[in-house]
Each structure stands twice: as C-alpha cells, then as structure tokens.
Amino acid sequence: MPMTVQVCILLLMLLASFSCKKADEKTVAVDLKEKMETSRDVPEAGKIPLKVAIAAVVSPRETAAYYDDMMKYAGERAGRPIEIIQRKTYREVNDLLEKKEIDFAFVCAGPYVTGKKKFGMELLVAPMLYGKPFYQAYFIVRKDSPFKDLDGLRGKRFAFSDPNSNTGALVPTYTLSLMGETPQTFFKSVIYTYSHDNSIKAVSKGLVDGASVDGLIWDYYHDKNPELVDRTRIIYRSPLYGIPPVVVHPQTPASTRDTLKKIFLGMHADPVGKKILEKLKIEKFIEPEDSSYDSVRKMQEWLDSRK
C-alpha cells in the first residue's frame, strides 16, 4: 500500500478532523481541521488588549480549556483584556512574537532556544509542576505491545508532535543521531500530529507503534483523565530539560513585562489564582534561568553540526 494512503487511513481512524499530505518519502505532516481560533476574547471598549499566542501543545479544544481561566484572571489583574491567539505550530508563534504582533507567548523549550538565538526572545516566567521547573520526553508504546526500548521500534511507525518541539521531535531525533540513525532511516514511517494528546491517542489506538511526548502532558492526563493514557506504557524517560516558558520580545515595554511578571509570580499566593493553578497541576510560576535550556541548545547544535 503506498505510504501516503496508508498514513491517511491511519489518521482518519484517529480523528475525523485530521487530513494528511506527503512531506517526504517517510515523513508525513498532519493538518488539523479543527478550527484554530485567532481570538477568544472580545476587547473591552476603550482598552487596548494584551495579545498572547499559544501553540497547540494539546489539541485546540483542550488548549482553549487549559488557558482560558488563566488568561481571564491575568486580564482582570492587568486591567486590560487579553486576546488568546492560537496557532498550530511553534514556528508560527515564534514568528508572531518576532514581528511584535503579540505581547507574550507560551512556547516550548526548543522554540525558546531558537527564538533567543534569532531575535533575542526573553524569558518572563515558567511554571513549576510536580515539584520541579523541568520536564522530559517520554517515549511511549501501547501497554500490550512487546516493545521494551527504542531499539525495538526499529522499522515501526512513530509519531512526533511538532517539527520544532523539544520533547516531540528534537529529543527523539537527537537520541537516534547518537545511534547513527535518523527518523527516516530508523522508522518505517513518521507522522506529525501537532499536539501531544493526539500523539498519545495515536499510540493508544494502535495507529502508530510509538511516540515521543511531553512528559508533563502524559502525567497530567494520568492524573486528570487516565483513560487517555491507560493503554500506553513508558519505555524511556529522557534527561530533564528547562520547562516550557512564557516569553516576551526583547523590546517589550518594561511596564508590560513587569505587570505580567507580577501577576504570574503572585498567582499561587492569591486564593483565586491558586485555584486556577491547582486545576492545571501548576504549583506556581517562577523566574527561570536561561542556563536551564543549555541542554536543549547542545542538542540543537549537535544536530546542526551533522547536517
């Protein structure tokens, strides 16, 4: 069966909202049909809204539920409405911030490192979950599968999330590189699902044999919605990396930067803010160090040196 047809059949079984197209011989990109809303809040009369961009770490519907309460809270404390702008890819979010079309953004560790190098993207705050401001990639398979490690997935079907995701693409690509392999030479086929929950679903339903996902997302669903992950099993946990941060453009006005930082850093001390954080399994926001992302830089530099 031709690769494009095979992958499309798999994706149609996964979500009716998926469509696919061939990206190269063994890598297929997935285009989500689920609506990506450009604005979720109507600006209040006479008030210039703050704009925040969010890439779909989880699927669009889940992303909206994840961030809505937090952004309403931040907008109320800032005295300005906040427009939530969703984008499918991390690159799109980075582009919006580079062009100063938004005020701040929630990004992955990989896109932060890329944005820092390209235009000076700056850290604002970062969440602390499960007692640490770090996270890791989980390589997962179906619970009833025979695979015990990454080598067992040689010649099998694998899911990445976003091409620029740290845990969803960079970590497995780097891991394979250390073995003298690439995703295209090691796996039978690779698909991009553009969200970690979709990658988990793909494994759970047996539509791919394995996936690399954000460990925080897997742990979150394990606690909040275990039926989503109870058919999957972790075969590898990567080293720890700096947690996905909230970022701003280097030319962001100090008043905007200071206001947002004060709101996020104080959420855990406010009963209303604490309740919102608890729902998201976030203990508090902290001021992250750029050095926390050095391990991500080293992976990117290693892979760039081998191109």
Question: What do these coordinates show?
Answer:
- By secondary structure, this protein is an alpha/beta fold.
- The chain folds into two domains: 3-33 and 137-238, 3-Layer(aba) Sandwich (D-Maltodextrin-Binding Protein, domain 2), CATH 3.40.190.10; 50-129 and 243-305, 3-Layer(aba) Sandwich (D-Maltodextrin-Binding Protein, domain 2).
- The protein contains eleven helices and 15 strands.
- The protein has helices at residues 3-14, 60-78, 90-98, 109-119, 166-178, 183-186, 196-204, 215-224, 254-266, 271-279, 294-305; strands at 18-22, 27-32, 50-55, 82-87, 104-106, 122-129, 134-135, 137-142, 157-160, 189-192, 210-214, 232-237, 241-242, 246-248, 282-286.
- The strands form three sheets. A seven-stranded mixed beta sheet has the order 1-2-10-9-11-8-12. It has a six-stranded mixed beta sheet with strand order 4-3-5-14-6-15, sandwiched between helices.
- Strand 3, helix 2 (60-78) and strand 4 form a beta-alpha-beta unit.
- The longest helix is centred in the first third of the chain and has 19 residues, at 60-78.
